[in-house]
Specification:
The protein is an alpha/beta fold and about 260 residues long. It contains seven helices and 13 strands. It binds flavin-adenine dinucleotide.
C-alpha cells in the first residue's frame, strides 16, 4: 500500500492573525503542522500498520515547512518531500491542487492520498476534492473509518447530520476527521530519525509543470470591524444569588 499524506504548515492556533498592508501577519507565533493533518498522518499510519506499505508526507511551502514534515516523520512516516520553488506565489486552492496532483503523479503508484479535512488558516477545505478531480480519482471526504478489501475501500463519512457509508475503488483521495483517535506522540526514536532526515526538495522543474495560475485573487485583506463589547460582572453574597441574577439577565436578554 503506497500512501501519501499532505501536510500544510500553519501558524499556531493560539496566534493572533491580523491584516497588515493587505497581508496576513501572525508576528512571532510559531509555525506548526496543521492540526487536522496530524489526524491524517495518524490515519495513514494505521492503514500502513493494517496493510503494510509506506507513508510519505508531502508539503508545499517554504524551506521552513520541513518542520511540519519532520513532525510527520517523528510520528512514523517513512519519508517526506518538500515542494518549493521561488516561482510559486499567490496560489489559490486550484493552483495548490494542480501541484498536489502533479506530485502524486511523479511519486507514482500511489494507492491512497490522505488530506486533513481543512487547513486552520485558509479554512476552505476544498483542496482534497479539487486534487481528486484533477487526478480523476474518487474523493472520499470526511472519512471517519476506512475498511479495505482488495482494491475496494469502504468509508464511513462523518458529518453533523449523521453518518454515510460510501464505497469506491483505489486509488482514491481521502480527507480525514478525528475519529481515528488522537494523533500519536512522536517517539524519542522518531524525533531522532526526523532530526537527521534528509528531506528532498522538488521544484517545478522536477514536477515538469509551469507555475499554476490562480483562479481567485485577493484584492483586499482587512481586520474585522472592531466590536464594542460591554462587560458586566455579576456579584452577590452567595453562588445561588449570583446564579439567580445571571438567569434573570439571560431571560431578559431572551437567551433562555
Ligand atoms: C507558495 C504558496 C503561496 C501562496 N500564496 C497565497 C497568497 O498569495 N494568498 C493567499 O491567500 N494564500 C496563498 N497561499 C495559500 C494557499 O492559497 C492555500 O494553502 C491553498 O489554497 C489551500 O487552501 P486552504 O489553506 O484553504 O486549505 P484546505 O483546502 O482547507 O486544506 C485541506 C487539506 O489540503 C492539504 N493542503 C492544503 N495546503 C497544502 C500545502 N500547501 N501543502 C500540503 N498540503 C496542503 C492539507 O492536507 C489540508 O488539511 C499560498 C500557499 C503556498 C504554498
Amino acid at each position: 500500500m503506497k500512501i501519501v499524506v499532505f501536510v500544510k504548515q500553519v501558524p499556531d492556533s493560539a496566534a493572533k492573525v491580523t491584516a497588515e498592508n493587505g497581508q496576513a501577519a501572525w508576528g512571532d507565533a510559531p509555525m506548526v503542522i496543521n492540526p487536522w493533518d496530524e489526524y491524517a498522518v495518524e490515519a495513514a499510519l494505521q492503514q500502513k500498520e493494517a496493510h503494510g506499505g509506506t507513508v510519505t508526507a508531502i508539503s508545499i511551502g517554504s524551506e521552513n515547512a520541513k518542520e511540519a514534515l519532520k513532525h510527520a516523520l517523528a510520528m512514523g512516516a517513512d519519508d517526506a518531500i518538500l515542494v518549493s520553488d521561488p516561482a510559486l506565489k499567490n496560489l489559490d486552492t486550484q493552483a495548490i491542487a494542480r501541484l498536489l496532483a502533479a506530485i502524486v503523479q511523479k511519486v507514482g503508484g500511489v494507492d491512497m492520498a490522505f488530506f486533513g479535512r481543512q487547513a486552520i488558516d485558509g479554512d476552505s477545505g476544498l483542496t482534497p476534492a479539487q486534487t481528486a478531480r484533477l487526478l480523476g480519482w474518487p474523493a472520499l471526504t470526511l472519512a471517519a473509518s476506512i475498511k479495505l478489501e482488495g482494491s475496494t475501500v469502504t468509508v464511513e463519512r462523518s458529518f453533523e447530520e449523521g453518518r454515510q457509508i460510501v464505497r469506491a475503488n483505489l486509488p482514491a483521495v481521502f480527507s480525514l476527521v478525528k475519529d481515528f483517535g488522537e494523533p500519536r506522540y512522536p517517539s524519542f526514536m522518531g524525533i531522532r530519525k526526523a532530526s537527521k532526515a534528509e528531506i528532498p526538495t522538488w521544484t517545478l522543474n522536477d514536477l515538469g509543470i509551469a507555475a499554476p495560475t490562480p483562479a481567485v485573487s485577493w484584492p483586499t485583506l482587512s481586520n474585522p470591524p472592531s466590536r464594542e463589547v460591554k462587560c458586566e460582572f455579576i456579584t452577590g453574597s452567595s453562588a445561588q444569588e449570583i446564579a439567580e441574577k445571571l438567569a434573570d439577565k439571560l431571560i431578559a436578554e431572551k437567551v433562555l
